[in-house]
Design a protein that fits this description.
- The complex is a heterodimer of chains A (about 160) and B (about 120).
- Chain A is built from four helices and nine strands.
- Chain A has a nine-stranded antiparallel beta sheet.
- With about 160 residues, chain A is mainly beta.
- Chain A is globular, with a radius of gyration of 17 Å.
- In chain A, a hairpin with a 6-residue loop joins strand 3 and strand 4.
- Chain A has helices at about 25-35, 35-40, 130-135, 155-159; strands at about 10, 15-25, 50-55, 65-70, 75-90, 90-100, 105-115, 120-130, 150.
- With about 120 residues, chain B is mainly α.
- Helix content of chain B is about 60%, strand content about 5%.
- Chain B has a two-stranded antiparallel ribbon with strand order 1-2.
- In chain B, helix 1 (about 5-15) crosses helix 5 (about 85-115).
- The relative contact order of chain B is 0.14.
- The chains are: A mainly beta (about 160), B mainly alpha (about 120).
- At the A-B interface, strand 2, helix 1, strand 5 and helix 4 of A face helix 1, helix 2 and helix 5 of B.
């Protein structure tokens, strides 16, 4: 039977969030799916009426990316953009995530790594925020407990 | 399996994916405030702040008072002050995306087999 491919999302330390997920595909394919606009448009953030308005990737150190979605029913917009710092296909890449508003100086740094074993690829995304406050959002309680949770997606187990 | 209120989590995620809106929520967590009071810390015009407030209101994260003069803003959904609520919305975003990616990767592997039959 197929392995349970559970998404793991944890808050680590004061300013990081780490996501891991395993895919039943070779590394090059998973890397391509994360870096080619024609592939990204088919899965990233796409659901519940959200559609891509813009999906641009200039995959090189110093190159920029920009994703923009719209949800028509609620008139919601969402945008992520940033710059690549390092690109090492098909093992990984590092990019920034720029905050649009002037309120927070700095930017988040995302490190993507792709590790293949037995035809499966494990993706790790480590997002480092400029401060604990930004990482914790509007939380007053914060993450001093070092929250760590793994989520099993029942859908995948039952498939 | 149908997830409950995925649309609400979508709206929550979109609303708080913006640092100015997160700062507004942090301020409102301390007590209600008028639009002018909220705009004060930012180098931002009132219409710009109002645009952010509308997104937050649409997501059900704040409510606006009916007092015609003041229309104070109040934070709703106290769970938002709990960091895990944001993580839940964030996780939903990635979980749904990765499920899509599973399907896409299956298609890509099939296409590859079709192009390179052994």
């Amino acid at each position: 039977m197929s392995v349970t491919h559970a998404l793991t999302l944890i808050a680590r330390g004061e300013d990081e969030i780490v996501i891991t997920r395993t895919f039943n595909a070779p590394k090059q394919m998973v890397f391509d799916a994360h870096t080619k606009p024609e592939l990204l448009r088919r899965w990233f953030g796409v659901r519940n009426g959200w559609t891509f308005v813009k999906c641009e990737v200039d995959l090189r150190a110093g190159g920029a990316y920009c994703y923009r979605w719209r949800q028509e029913a609620k008139g919601l917009d969402l945008q992520f953009r940033g710059v690549f710092r390092e690109v090492t296909p098909p093992d990984g890449f590092v990019c920034t995530e720029i905050f649009e508003e002037p309120f927070h100086a700095g930017e988040a740094v995302n490190t993507y790594s792709f590790v293949e074993e037995n035809g499966e690829t494990t993706l790790t995304i480590c997002t480092r925020y400029p401060s604990k406050e930004v990482r914790d959002m509007a939380a007053k309680s914060g993450m001093e407990c070092g929250l760590e949770e793994s989520y099993q997606n029942l859908d995948e187990v039952l498939q | 399996m149908v997830m409950q209120s995925t649309s609400q989590l979508d709206a929550t995620f979109a609303a708080i994916a913006d640092p100015t809106r997160r700062a507004i929520l942090a301020r409102l967590a301390e007590g209600e405030a008028s639009v002018n009071e909220l705009a004060a810390p930012f180098a931002m015009s009132q219409p710009a702040i109002s645009k952010h407030l509308k997104v937050l209101e649409l997501a059900g994260l704040i409510s606006r008072g009916r007092d015609a003069q003041r229309r104070p803003c109040r934070i709703e959904a106290q769970p938002l002050a709990d960091a895990s609520k944001w993580l839940e919305a964030y996780r939903e975003f990635w979980e749904a995306s990765f499920q899509n990616l599973d399907s896409l990767l299956d298609e890509m592997k099939t296409e590859k087999k079709v192009r390179n039959p052994k």
